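Question: Send over one sample?
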Amino acid sequence: MNNFKQFKQMFLAQLKLTFREKQAWFWGIFFPIILMVIFMTIFGGGSNDDFSTKVVIVNESSNEISTMMASQLEKIPIIETNEISSVSEEKAKALVKEKEVDAAIILPESAQATSIKLIVNKENEQSVSTQVVSGILDKFIQQANLQAVGATPTYEQQFETISSGSPELKYNDFLLTGMIALSIAQGGLFGMVDLVDMRRKGLIKRLRMTPAKMGIFGLSDMVMRLLFSIIQIFLLSLIGVFLFGANLFINFPSLLLVFLMGALSFNAIGYLISSFSNTNEAYMGVANIISFLMMFVSGIFFPIETMPEWLQPISNILPLTYFADGLRDSMVYNTSILSAPLWFGFGNMLLWGGIAFIMGSLLYKRKSIVSTR
């Protein structure tokens, strides 16, 4: 009961201090919102239905074959042809070089010619637009070859997408849950910097002279940060749904467990960082390194499966990977709390958070013993 009283008093004291600090509200609430809006605007873009690529079609020596090809190419929905009615090959190359168009297609100069040339800018050779135009042109040539020999296509491709969630799901849903996971994780990683400041001002030293336990002190701070995370997930979800049109299909028991496990785990990691950082600068340096590494290898912006194979094993041991996947499962795919992958993620986050909290408490206790000698 004595431990509970300590926890209650420490929690209320830290909560009052936090409410008085305007910077805490900015970095804990408003900065994650700004960050999500920026990334959702950049990466959330439009849908595939809005995709188009600018192409100039060169038909200098107009003939029956080239005119027919030009007419068919102009009917392809995602190809936006140049409005210039007569363009030479040199002019087309200049347009591509100056990036006024994504590509130039040079049609056969005569009915006997057998080549169709595709011209793209070297700098954009691996771009999405180039790959799309190249693929469309390749399929177009295959169909032209079949027509030339009078063959009728036997097989055709049928494309279908399936998902464990609703068919209405889109990339914005994936990105929204990733950004929520990142924001809550950063709140935990950076939120414990005030402990370093308290130690620098001598407040921790004074606390050591009391019967207070450092483990309870750290736990009370982590629970207080949890309140910030609740506000974060609520506000970010509202912005994602109403501003960016994201879809959420929430399983509340799964979400509650994932949220609590993830938020407390990253708060524990921040608590560990604060235990060995002597200055705010040192703390922020370590937190920034950890945050930066996990941000790009934990499947926040793109699925882990699209990353290089040598990098995927690293991603599969990071807590942010399982936190982001857990939020997607519980907020987007409506996954049951009995799901085995969900519990595997719980185990990973519990391991990271438990080890970090125990190590942080031991380091604080060790410093307490040393300071009294």
Remarks:
- The CA atoms of residues 39 and 214 lie 38 Å apart.
- The two ends are 30 Å apart (CA to CA).
